[in-house]
Amino acid sequence: MYTLGIDIGSTTSKCVILKDGEYVYAKGLAVGGLGTQGPEIALNTIWNESGLTKSDIARTIVTGYGRNRFEGGDGEVSELTCHALGGRFVFEDLRTVIDIGGQDAKVITLSESGKMSNFVMNDKCAAGTGRFLDVMAGILCVDINDFEKYAEKSKSPASISSTCTVFAESEVISQLANGVEMPDLIAGICDSVATRVASLARRAGVRETVCMSGGVARNGAVRKAMEKELGVRIEFDPLAQYFGAIGAALYAHRQLTR
Ligand code: ADP
């Protein structure tokens, strides 16, 4: 039995097909979230790659920021539930999920049995989200995927003191003008995101096993900085950006089998 999970975020759309609720059969990701062609492109990718069609899917659940406006699912579920489910699907002892997406950051804690026990969220301020990294990548003309490579070369990460993205942007530009090296600037930018999200995590209460989800999880420099801030190991899986979609597909499977 195939189930489909669609996660329509603020900046990207992700979809996952699970086979028998057991493993990821196909996945697709497209830039563009709510109100764009993103969901359609991600779905086309998944149909092309899997060879399946919509009629092969037993149930579809939609999650994410744009879930209420998407037509074509059989139901919708909050992204908190889906990230917790998706995280636990990959890491069976998971107790804390740190999700950093394009426009928000959430920390979700789980009980020993895997039920969501608490969450803390920042959806008011771009600092501490992927948006902050995207803005900085834009002004530095560096691809976001190269941030980790640059940050690894840093000997003395720059200190970014502004708590507001707009002020931090000016601060980075003036540090660049003052000759601060690119690796140090990028490491400082990653540290800044980690510091903000770590303070959210402390409020939620961090318990191991801890993992990161969302697009920013792909950035090893943010992960390492977060490990240092929180003093815990942070697990990572290449499927991290798909945890919401995996959780939605798993939810669909459970609805049909329980
Ligand atoms: P949403 O679900 O809110 O649309 P995602 O969880 O898909 O967001 O994450 C999107 C964010 O991930 C973007 O803001 C982008 O900057 C960030 N991102 C993607 N790849 C990387 C990377 N390699 N390093 C850092 N950030 C990344």
Protein architecture, described:
The chain starts with a strand and ends with a helix. The model has no long low-confidence stretch (mean pLDDT 94). It is 40% helix and 22% strand. Helix 3 (130-140) packs parallel to helix 5 (165-177), helix 3 (130-140) packs antiparallel against helix 6 (182-204) and helix 6 crosses helix 7. The strands form two sheets. A five-stranded mixed beta sheet has the order 3-2-1-4-5. A five-stranded mixed beta sheet has the order 8-7-6-9-10, sandwiched between helices. The chain is globular. It has 258 residues and is α/β, with parallel strands linked by helices. It has two domains: 1-91 and 239-258, ATPase, nucleotide binding domain (Nucleotidyltransferase, domain 5), CATH 3.30.420.40; 93-236, Nucleotidyltransferase, domain 5 (2-Layer Sandwich). The relative contact order is 0.20. The protein has helices at 38-50, 79-90, 130-140, 147-152, 165-177, 182-204, 220-230, 243-257; strands spanning 2-8, 12-19, 23-31, 57-63, 75-76, 96-100, 105-110, 116-122, 210-213, 234-235. The structure holds adenosine-5'-diphosphate. Adenosine-5'-diphosphate is lined by residues 9-12, 33, 64, 101-103, 130-131, 133-134, 144-145, 147, 214-216, 218-219, 241.
